[in-house]
Amino acid sequence: MTHFEAVQIIARQLTNQIVVSTVGNTNRELYSTKKHNLTLYGVQMSLVTPLALGLAKGIPSRKVIALDGDGSLLMGLGILTTVATNPADNLLIIVLDNGCYAACGWYPTAAGKGTDLAGIASSAGIPEVSTVENPDELSAVLEGYLKKKGPAFIRAKVESAPLREAFEPLPFDALDGTYRFRQALADEGLVEAWHDVTPVHYTFSK
Q: What is the CATH number for 62?
């Protein structure tokens, strides 16, 4: 299963979930596949799952998905113990494990050298943990976890290579994306309406 195939499978099952997506090809592939207003794109490495946990705790009425990578999760493995010991039953962590840092030269991660992230998640105490290696497995396991209470963890073993097709950069920067995400939450009634506190030097169109 390629990285992009996994992203496409995930995108097809998105409805009203909140998604926090990591940097690199993941967010560009996701945006190119599905324009999902409740997605916060391009969250920096090590921060994806912690931020998703915070959103899950703050908005318990909605499923929250952390779309993370192996390199990103490895930078902050302690979050798995926090998820296990302070559980949010609406949290789903999906790790696209390609075993390398694809965005900066294909250097192998610890996962690419044998570290089992699903085993670590299970040992940390996360109750629902699965490893999937093909599209059918990912689709079935994802469908099941979206319907049941968590927290849950999916390690999707994927292959990465130079993209066959070029994806344009997202048409907004990180600050603009954050405002758009916050507005989408407000539009859904998940957070209180907010006053525009945009810095005067920054133009943002809602």
A: 3.40.50.970
User: How many structural domains compose the chain?
Assistant: 2
pTM for the whole thing?
0.92
C-alpha span between 195 and 127 (Å, rounded): 40
The burial of 153, by beta-carbon neighbours within 10 Å (0-12 exposed, 13-18 middle, 19 or more buried), is given as: buried
pLDDT, tens digit, for every residue of 79-99? 999 999 999 999 999 999 999
Three-state DSSP state, 170: coil
d(CA 126, CA 49): 13
Specify whether the CB–CB gap between 111 and 165 falls below 8 A: no
Q: How many CB atoms lie within 10 A of CB 167?
A: 15
The rounded distance, in Å, linking the Cα atoms of 194 and 167 is: 33
Question: Do residue 92 and residue 162 come from a single domain?
Answer: yes
Q: What's the CA gap between 28 and 170, in Å, rounded? A: 6
Q: Are residues 29 and 102 in the same domain?
A: yes
Query: Could you tell me the residue range of the domain that residue 39 belongs to?
Result: 3-166
Same domain? For 184 and 156 the reply is no
